[in-house]
Every structure is written in C-alpha cells, then in structure tokens.
Design a protein that fits this description.
By secondary structure, the chain is an alpha+beta fold. Helices cover about 15% and strands about 30% of the residues. Strand 6, helix 2 and strand 7 form a beta-alpha-beta unit. It has a nine-stranded mixed β-sheet, sandwiched between helices. The protein is globular and about 45 Å long. The protein has a single domain, classed as Gcn5-related N-acetyltransferase (GNAT) (Aminopeptidase, 3-Layer(aba) Sandwich), CATH 3.40.630.
Length: about 180
C-alpha cells in the first residue's frame, strides 16, 4: 500500500521494523540509524539537550544517530564510565542521549537498543546510563534496561581532585538525585 504526501497514512502507534533496521513512522518517513562523529553528536546535544551540554572534550567511544529521511533527529554518545567503580574494561556508559522535536515516539528506545547491540558486538558486557529521578525512564524500560541503583546529589562546591579539575564545572543537574540503569 502506498501513500502520497497529499494523502498520508495515520501515524503508526508502534513503529514496524524493516529488514534493514529502519522503522516505519507512519508510512511516509522511515526512522533509521546512522553513524555520526562524536563532534556531530555533541553539536546536536548542545543544540537540543534539556539539561546537559557537550561531553568533556567531545569525548566518547562512539556515537549513533537516528534519522528520518536523511535528517538527524536524535543521537546517543557512548563512552567510558564516569564512576571509577565501573571501569573494568567491559562496562561503558551512555553519556548523552538526545532527540529533537521531530523524533517520533520510540526513537530513544531505538537508540538505547542500538548502543547496547553495538557495545555487545565489541565484546562489552554491561552498559549503564543515568536519568534524573524526576524522569519517567519509559524509553529505557522499552529498550529492556533495568534500574539497578540511585545516586546522591552532588553539592555545589564539591570538586573531585583529579586531572580534570580545571575543566569541570558544577551545574544544577549535578545537584539532583539520579537513577542508574543497566543493560547486561
């Protein structure tokens, strides 16, 4: 069944998966994945993220983009864990996940699933991320992730004594409690 721009199909409640990994959004656009550079992903985060900016030094291990008809509508950046507790060489962290207003429902879940599949394919055993306690976490639950812990808020003025001290600034989001999620 084909539809024209003048007679679009109603939006799909759940995207249909295609053989090449793209997902139908309505019948006009296809939500797909694409590789993006860390700089491109950080530019997107800087423009669209609600409460976080770029990763430190535009860092990360890899980034994945979500696109509709060739337009970038979301990104995920995976890097080393921020907590030394999890630095075992087999655990990575989704440092940023961000979509814009054009991203369809399910886009965040697709990005989380894609990050986990890519990390697992590289030999990784665990992928973690954090959400604010005030956020629903629906996209993570939809991607099959589980809540495994909570963090304590970081007080203004607290500084970790390490080589990044001069580059790290306290931001209000650091003062909020977060939930730690895991795919394993």
């Amino acid at each position: 069944m084909s539809h024209s721009l003048n007679n679009p199909a109603p939006p799909a409640s759940q995207p249909d998966s295609k053989e090449d990994g793209r997902q139908a959004v309505g019948s006009i656009a296809l939500l797909g994945r694409r590789p993006v550079t860390l700089r491109e992903a950080n530019d997107f985060v800087q423009n669209f993220h609600r409460h976080n900016g770029r990763t430190l030094r535009d860092g990360g291990k890899f980034a994945i983009g979500a696109e509709i008809n060739g337009e970038l509508v979301g990104v995920a950046i995976v890097g080393n864990t921020l907590s030394a507790t999890f630095m075992d060489g087999y655990t990575a962290e989704v440092l940023r996940l961000c979509t814009n207003e054009k991203a369809p429902r399910g886009c965040c879940s697709m990005l989380y699933q894609s990050c986990w599949r890519a990390w697992k394919a590289m030999g990784g055993r665990k992928l973690i991320t954090y959400t604010l306690k005030t956020e629903s976490g629906a996209s993570l639950r939809g991607a099959g992730w589980k809540i495994v812990g909570e963090t304590k808020p970081v007080k203004d003025g607290w500084r970790k004594n390490d080589h990044l001290n001069d580059r790290r600034e306290w931001t209000p989001v650091m003062g909020q409690q977060k939930l730690r999620w895991e795919a394993a």
